[in-house]
Design goal:
about 190 residues, alpha+beta, Ribosomal Protein S5, domain 2, 4-stranded mixed β-sheet, 4 helices, cytoplasm, Ribosomal_Su5_D2-typ_SF, imidazoleglycerol-phosphate dehydratase activity, ImidazoleglycerolP_deHydtase, amino-acid biosynthesis
Amino acid sequence: MPRSSTVSRTTRETSIELTIDIDGKGDSQINTGIGFFDHMLVCFARHSGFDLTIDAKGDLEVDGHHLIEDIGIVMGQAFDRIMAEKSGIARFGEAKIPMDEALASVVMDIGGRSYLVMDATFESENVGEFNTQLTRHFFESFVSNAKVTLHATVYGYNDHHKIEALFKAFAQAMKKATVIEGKGVKSTKGCL
């Protein structure tokens, strides 16, 4: 059974078409209009091994908030559709990724409950045209719609390195959590 999903979302602020295939090769075609965010999503695809296509337009003349939030929503919805059964998956994933002086750690549970714990502070307001505050907001939007629990921490002093390490650790944790290990759902309840 293919583990892929396509989700479209159009509002007065954004228009997004996203396809994700978690059994892919890490290929990506990303166009959000925010260069650094494109770079983070390409890193996510490459390091997770998920194929990811995003064609997104938004009211960037206002700022990137609506577009980044809505991409998190759509990516979470697509992932939730793929993981609807949760049968046979490892369920838990974790990764620590260094990038020079920065070190990011992401631990996740595909358990059907949305919760984000994030310890990340940034020195600068922007990396390129990407507002660093929106890092947390992207993960909040994803977690809420994917119905996963995610704990993320990062330290360092270069904000580019810190955010990139977070996205790469997120990718590796997702890759591990979605691996098929057997049959049935990993829960003493028998369902998630």
